[in-house]
Recover the amino acids of this structure.
């Protein structure tokens, strides 16, 4: 009898653009202050992908190439690319296809997955199922978002929050029980009215009127989203612990979506985790939507040890939210 196959994360890559948009620069653009932004959100600077006609594939491709290099594989070996994004290069074709071509993943099929800030968790869960089925050996999940493309830099309530970045992981079969253990994913379409980009889809195609009405930018009712996020992200992370008969003491790391430092703190509290077990880099990158979680894993990779139990948790537009339990599969060299 063969052992049950689980999907292990075996490599991580990321890409962050060079340009740093600091709170000081934002102070020259809108009526805000470094103090307000830091205390209300935790963000100090974010990266911006500058230049004409540059989309998320330009960040996703190098992130995947980095993980291939680290793992010592050729992009031709990749079976599938799941590209999690709400800012695709174009509405169609899928950015996954554009990335495949850029990196030479000629044997991969791929598709885009839209779940806003929970995109990466949805992608990891989908990718794991492909691996667990036994049919696929190398599945890449890349979270890549260029939020600067849909942020209104005259709206102080949103422009201070977001940044651009990509992060990618490789999933491979494991027969020793390492890897993705369980995910709890949720969604609630009631949230669609509080966090959205109104125009450019089939319901309201782009027109001169939609451009003039600024409907191609993020619309967010911040305090309402905050209220839902702070409760639901904490609740789902706690539910994941309970279902697996774990407490905060069993968890080596919480890897939370980086939307707001106050939401992260509430989640850690609910799980009974001290702050030294929480990955936080919101101060340097802001909210990069589907890239936040893999970007944290990338930055903390050297501290992760084989066997560590880690919890990924997210909340985002949709609403979508969830938590994933991972048994880390390798020690970094
Ligand atoms: N600088 C200075 N003042 C500001 C700024 C700013 N950048 N932004 C808002 N304010 C003002 C408001 O106008 C308001 O002033 P008023 O009282 O005179 O009306 C005051 O500050 C308080 O505004 P609130 O919106 O109530 O501030 P809040 O404490 O809620 O913080 C924030 C706003 C940071 C947006 C918070 O609501 C939040 O983090 N929301 C959740 C974001 C999130 O998690 N999004 C989900 C993921 S995103 C995705 O899925 C794509």
């Amino acid at each position: 009898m063969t052992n049950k196959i689980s999907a292990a994360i075996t490599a991580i890559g990321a890409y962050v653009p060079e340009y740093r948009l600091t709170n000081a620069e934002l102070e020259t653009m809108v009526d805000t202050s470094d103090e307000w932004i830091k205390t209300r959100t935790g963000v100090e600077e974010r990266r911006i992908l500058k230049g004409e006609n540059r989309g998320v594939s330009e960040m996703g491709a190098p992130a995947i190439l980095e993980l291939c290099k680290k793992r010592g594989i050729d992009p031709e070996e990749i079976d599938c690319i799941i590209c999690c994004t709400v800012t695709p290069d174009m509405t169609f074709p899928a950015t996954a296809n554009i990335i495949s071509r850029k990196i030479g993943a000629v044997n991969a099929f791929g598709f885009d997955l839209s779940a806003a800030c929970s995109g990466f968790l949805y992608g990891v869960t989908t990718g794991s199922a492909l691996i667990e089925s036994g049919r696929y050996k190398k599945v890449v999940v890349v979270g890549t978002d260029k939020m600067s493309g849909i942020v209104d830099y005259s709206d102080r309530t949103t422009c201070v929050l977001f940044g651009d970045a990509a992060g990618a992981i490789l999933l491979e079969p494991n027969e020793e029980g390492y890897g993705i253990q369980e995910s709890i994913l949720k969604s609630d379409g009631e949230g669609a009215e509080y966090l959205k980009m109104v125009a450019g889809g089939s319901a309201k195609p782009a027109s001169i009127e939609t451009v003039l009405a600024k409907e191609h930018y993020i619309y967010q009712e911040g305090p309402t989203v905050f209220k839902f996020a702070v409760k639901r992200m904490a609740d789902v992370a706690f539910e994941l612990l309970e279902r697996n008969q774990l407490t905060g003491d069993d968890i080596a790391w919480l890897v939370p979506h980086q939307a707001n430092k106050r939401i992260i703190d509430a989640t850690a509290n609910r799980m009974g985790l001290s702050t030294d077990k929480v990955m936080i880099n919101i101060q340097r990158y802001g909210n990069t939507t589907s890239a936040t979680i893999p970007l944290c894993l990338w930055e903390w990779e050297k501290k992760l040890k084989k066997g560590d139990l880690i919890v990924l948790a997210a909340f985002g537009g949709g609403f979508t939210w969830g938590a994933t339990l991972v048994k880390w599969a390798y020690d970094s060299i």
Notes: The chain has a mean pLDDT of 97. The domain at 181-327 is CATH 3.40.47.10 (Peroxisomal Thiolase; Chain A, domain 1). The first helix runs from residue 23 to 27.
